[in-house]
Design goal:
Mean pLDDT: 95
Structural class: mainly alpha
CATH architecture of the largest domain: Orthogonal Bundle
Distance between the termini: 65 Å
Number of domains: 3
Low-confidence stretches: none
CATH superfamily of the largest domain: DNA Cyclobutane Dipyrimidine Photolyase, subunit A, domain 3
Strand order of the largest sheet: 3-2-1-4-5
Shape: globular
Order of helices and strands: EHEHHEHEHEHHHHHHHHHHHHHHH
Strand content: 5-15%
Radius of gyration: 24 Å
Number of helices: 20
Number of strands: 5
CATH class of the largest domain: Mainly Alpha
Largest sheet: 5 strands, parallel
Length: 460
């Protein structure tokens, strides 16, 4: 009887799982396994909430496997050593896993493949990260032509999604580790991911219909909030794309806009696959030596949500308290750090990775380089968000600000976006004295904008 190890990594699901399906069609028995890698668990970029969400996802996957007569074997240690040991224990002929374009993952997989037969399948993205190229074979570095090429390839339909197995045969009496009980900031698991996708995309009145209009509104629940589930593969990228394509007939504009967001995720995966150095430096060589100010006290104020710019502070407090931040908030907070405070974008990138439940090396790096204007297909360096105007546009009544910055709860809408300009009598009436109850702005935006433009234009 042939046995294969299904090595789960970023595919903590049973439905539409290419690696699991391949294993089931090529073996009589499957050993579902997850390896807790000490290299990753000791990383300075680790977010406690992300680990908790992962552990919750492992518990949910184990429960789904047990319902099918199997279970998840969890080991802790070097992946090559642990998988080799598991193969000896079970007599497994090899390992099947979903490919991952992250540089560390590729090095890890190469080490495993040197010791064990390793089969890698697609599945992390709709189209594999290295597949979409120009006619001359070069990778795309601009989103729009990449997205056209992406859409020109065959797209999945609902009938092509791979079903979850009814039962799995797994060798008994395998030693494993208990899965840590940690409270996750999002309900983990495949069932919750599917529930959220259905609530977001099914029916003409679903939020996806208004996504094009609502997705940037900080004060509305206008996004899918599926990013943590996509991060760990509790739902497949193909399943999300199918939902967008199915919704297109009834809600064309919103569905197409959401599909584009999924394509941005794949674009950044492709950039990381072709240009792994972006994790260490700017994609654009001419912007690798910007004379950053890197003031530590300014950075600390940004991290704590104490900059005196309410929308920035609300976004940062949402991140620290929940492990998630609205995408418009991410752009505003990132722009403020880089272009108002002139702090190296890599410091902000790391802080986000240390807190985001959905922290993904490709998407996080791509977003920061885009906002900083130093990456592929980036916003021009002279595009500098005005935080007050951004807040007025995307949180018009200040509801998002009041939720996360309670010191400003009684400040009227006329002053909520720039409370430092509020007359003293109104400060007293609202119970918020600027400089005492809430900080004055740590930098003047107009002055900071001029400083940043000069820094980006300067020759080092």
């Amino acid at each position: 009887m042939k046995t294969l190890i299904w090595w789960a990594r970023r595919d903590l699901r049973l439905t539409d799982n290419a690696a699991l399906t391949w294993a089931l069609t090529h073996a009589d028995a499957i050993v579902p396994a997850f390896v807790l890698d000490p290299v990753l668990l000791s990383s300075p970029d680790l977010a406690p909430g992300r680990v908790a969400f992962l552990y919750g996802g492992l518990r949910a996957l184990d429960a789904d496997l047990r319902a099918r007569g199997s279970r998840l074997i969890v080991r802790r240690g070097d992946p090559t050593e642990e998988l080799s040991r598991l193969a000896r224990e079970t007599g497994a002929a090899g390992v099947v896993a979903e490919e991952d374009p992250w540089p560390y993952a590729r090095r890890r997989d190469a080490r495993v493949a040197a010791e064990l037969p390793l089969r890698l399948t697609a599945g992390l993205t709709v189209h594999p990260a290295g597949d979409i190229r120009k006619g001359d074979g070069a990778p795309y570095t601009v989103f729009t032509p990449y997205s056209r090429a992406w859409k020109a390839l065959p797209l999945p339909s609902r009938s092509e999604l791979l079903p979850a197995p009814v039962r799995l045969a797994t060798p008994p009496d395998l030693a494993g580790l208990p899965i840590s009980e940690r409270s996750a900031p999002f309900p983990p698991g495949e069932a919750e991911a599917e529930r959220r996708l259905h609530a977001f995309s099914a029916g003409p009145q679903a939020p996806i219909a208004r996504y094009d209009d609502d997705r940037n509104r900080l004060d509305l629940a206008g996004t899918s909030a599926l990013s943590p589930y996509l991060r760990f593969g509790m739902i497949s990228a193909r399943r999300a794309a199918v939902a967008a394509l199915d919704a297109t007939a009834a809600t064309r504009k919103g569905a197409e806009t959401w599909l584009n967001e999924l394509i941005w995720r794949e674009f950044y995966m492709a950039i990381l696959f072709h240009y792994p150095a972006v994790l260490e430096e700017a994609f654009r060589p001419e912007l690798r030596r910007i004379p950053w100010v890197d003031d530590d006290s300014d950075f600390a104020a940004w991290c704590a949500g104490e900059t005196g710019y309410p929308v920035v502070d609300a976004a940062m407090r949402q991140l620290v308290q929940t492990g998630w931040m609205h995408n418009r908030g991410r752009m505003i907070a990132a722009s403020f750090l880089v272009k108002d405070l002139l702090i190296d974008w890599r410091r902000g990138e790391r802080f986000f990775m240390q807190h985001l439940v959905d922290g993904d090396p490709a998407a996080n790096n791509g977003g920061w380089q885009w906002t900083a204007g130093v990456g592929t297909d980036a916003a021009p360096y002279f595009r500098i968000f005005n935080p007050e105007l951004q807040a007025r546009r995307f949180d018009p009544e200040g509801d998002y600000i009041r939720r996360w910055v309670p010191e400003l709860a009684r400040v009227p809408a006329a002053h909520i976006h720039a409370p430092a300009g509020m007359p003293l009598d109104q400060q007293r009436a609202s119970g918020c004295i600027i400089g005492r109850d809430y900080p004055a702005p740590i930098v003047d935006h107009a002055w900071a904008r001029a400083r940043t433009l000069a820094a980006y234009r300067s020759e080092p």
